[in-house]
Structure formats: structure tokens, C-alpha cells
């Protein structure tokens, strides 16, 4: 039997205290999401975890944990142990105004659709924006740890023992909850800095021109990176997207 829903506070390296809900209950997922029900254009950190398959030639296991982070609120949802899926979660993920940010988020979105029938309407991989705004094409291949250092100046710890742990366990360890919260929060914070209308004030000493600031505002208005939405920004970001997909 899965563990009961509980609340915990995870303190990040930057001092941010993240209030995290850990649950395998669709009813508690609904309650969490209703905190944000009045908002139509949210930036949301999204990540997913699953137990690794070490069998040669074996396929990937299904998603066990879905993480969502909005500001200093995080949901660690043990979706694999729930008896149903909240219609509120379906609507939230499919909301065309919300932007779901994460490194490799397109893969998470595909797995959520194929394994749980959950459609993520607007997934955005922040590597494209970071590579452009910071003039660092190497960030197209970056993992979350490298991206956090480049965008936030933060060193985050991602121990392999937790990365490769049993995410389908009925009761997550404290280390797993901390790791899951950190991934979702850092994804959110990177997205906030790169995609919000005033991201140019969040990048510290990085030189971002007025032209880039205007484009940043535009692609928040569009709710997606240009390569995904077409138009003028599509022409700008398509080469970056193609390179990452190779």
C-alpha cells in the first residue's frame, strides 16, 4: 500500500524553502492544483522519474513519479501507485496558456501521453533559450546540472545513487523526495529566468541586448519557444532544435 499524503519543506542551496506535497492520491493532486486554478499563464517546472531497467535490450519502465513546481510549491506525485487520474491534472497539463519547462521535457511529455493518456500542451526545453541568450551553443547538450550553473550560478547535487534508485517504491526515501523537488524547482527557476517578461533582469551579469529582451517577451506571449510555434521565432530557433534532435 502506498504511503499517505504528506507535506514537507525542502531547502534548496540558494536558501529557497520549497513546500512539497508528496502523494499517490488523485484527490490530493486535485487539491494541490486548485491552489493555482485562477491562473492562466503559469510557468511550471516539470520532471518525471522512473525505475531504470538494467536488463540488456530491455525497454524503459513507465513513469513512476511526476513532479510539478510553481514558485515555491512542488508536487511529487507517485502516479504509478494511484488508482485513477485526476481530471484536474489532465486539464492543467493540457492548458494552452501554461508553459511546462524541463530539460528533455519532450520525452517526459511523450511518456505521459503514451503511458497515462496525459497530454502536455506546451512543453518547453530551456536549453534552446539558454544557448541563444547566453551565446553558448554547448548548452544545447547540457543536462540540468550544467544548465543550472549557467543560468542560475547554482551548483546542484544529483547523486547517481538517487538518480538510478527505485522510483516505483511505495514509500519514497527522504533523499528521493529532496532530489525530485530539486529537479522540479530548478526547472521552474530556469524557466522563470529565461522565459518571463523580465528575464533580462534575472541573468545577472550576462549581457542581453534590448532586441533579445523584446524577443523574450514575444515568446512568452506565444507561450512556447519559437521553433515549436513557427513564425519569426521559428526561423530563429529551428536550427537549434534540429541540432539537439540529431
TrEMBL record:
Start and end residues of each 3'-5' exonuclease domain: 20-199
Hydrolase is among the record's keywords: yes
GO biological process: nucleobase-containing compound metabolic process
SMART domains in UniProt: 35EXOc
Keyword DNA-binding: no
UniProt-recorded Gene Ontology molecular function terms: 3'-5' exonuclease activity; nucleic acid binding
Keyword annotations from UniProtKB, A to Z: Hydrolase, Nuclease
Any one Gene Ontology cellular component term annotated for this protein: nucleus
Organism domain of life: Eukaryota
Name by which UniProt lists this protein: 3'-5' exonuclease domain-containing protein
Annotated organism of origin: Eragrostis curvula
Taxonomic lineage from the root: Eukaryota, Viridiplantae, Streptophyta, Embryophyta, Tracheophyta
Amino acid at each position: 500500500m502506498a504511503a499517505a499524503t504528506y507535506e514537507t519543506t525542502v531547502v534548496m542551496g540558494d536558501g529557497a524553502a520549497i513546500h512539497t506535497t508528496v502523494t499517490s492520491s488523485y484527490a490530493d493532486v486535485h487539491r494541490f492544483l486548485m491552489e493555482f486554478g485562477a491562473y492562466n499563464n503559469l510557468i511550471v517546472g516539470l520532471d518525471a522519474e522512473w525505475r531504470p531497467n538494467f536488463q540488456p535490450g530491455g525497454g524503459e519502465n513507465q513513469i513512476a513519479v511526476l513532479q510539478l513546481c510553481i514558485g515555491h510549491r512542488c508536487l511529487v506525485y507517485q502516479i504509478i501507485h494511484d488508482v485513477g487520474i485526476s481530471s484536474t491534472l489532465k486539464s492543467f497539463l493540457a492548458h494552452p496558456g501554461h508553459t511546462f519547462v524541463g530539460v528533455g521535457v519532450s520525452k517526459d511529455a511523450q511518456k505521459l501521453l503514451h503511458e497515462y493518456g496525459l497530454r502536455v500542451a506546451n512543453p518547453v526545453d530551456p536549453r534552446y533559450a539558454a544557448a541563444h541568450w547566453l551565446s553558448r551553443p554547448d548548452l544545447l547538450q547540457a543536462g540540468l546540472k550544467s544548465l543550472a550553473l549557467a543560468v542560475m550560478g547554482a551548483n546542484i547535487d544529483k547523486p547517481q545513487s538517487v538518480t538510478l534508485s527505485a522510483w516505483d517504491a511505495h514509500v519514497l526515501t527522504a533523499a528521493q523526495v529532496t532530489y525530485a523537488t530539486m529537479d522540479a524547482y530548478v526547472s521552474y527557476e530556469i524557466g522563470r529566468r529565461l522565459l518571463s517578461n523580465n528575464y533580462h533582469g534575472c541573468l545577472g551579469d550576462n549581457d542581453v541586448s534590448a532586441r533579445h529582451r523584446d524577443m523574450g517577451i514575444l515568446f512568452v506571449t506565444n507561450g512556447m519557444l519559437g521553433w515549436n510555434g513557427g513564425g519569426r521565432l521559428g526561423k530563429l530557433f529551428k536550427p537549434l532544435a534540429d541540432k539537439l534532435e540529431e
